[in-house]
Amino acid sequence: MLYRIYFNDKSDLPFIWSFDSGDISSEVKVTNVNIADCHAWTHYDVTADNKTSPTAWIYVMAGYVEIVDDVVYFMN
Q: Whole-angstrom Cα distance, residue 31 to residue 74?
């Protein structure tokens, strides 16, 4: 499955990272991100307002996602 990983506003500390499955309605906030054996690439949208949609993010293609102690692990 394809996910987006993006940096949150400082006010969200300690949940400084978020990921979703393509739009912000599926957002999950986490403290850290780990990517193992997955294809990943960056993307940006200069027209985004960075409130309802991030301006820049990392796409990651992962077969398995697990959250442990507020840390997300993307794996294949």
A: 14
Buried b (16+ CB within 10 A) or exposed e, 41-55: eeeeeeeeeeeeebe
- Summarised one tens digit per residue, pLDDT across range 3-43 is 999 999 889 999 999 999 988 899 999 999 999 999 999 99
Peptide bond connecting 54 to the previous residue in cis, omega within 30 degrees of 0: no
Q: What is the 3-state secondary structure (H, E, C) of 41-75?
A: EEEECCCCCCCCCCCEEEEEECCEEEEECCEEEEE
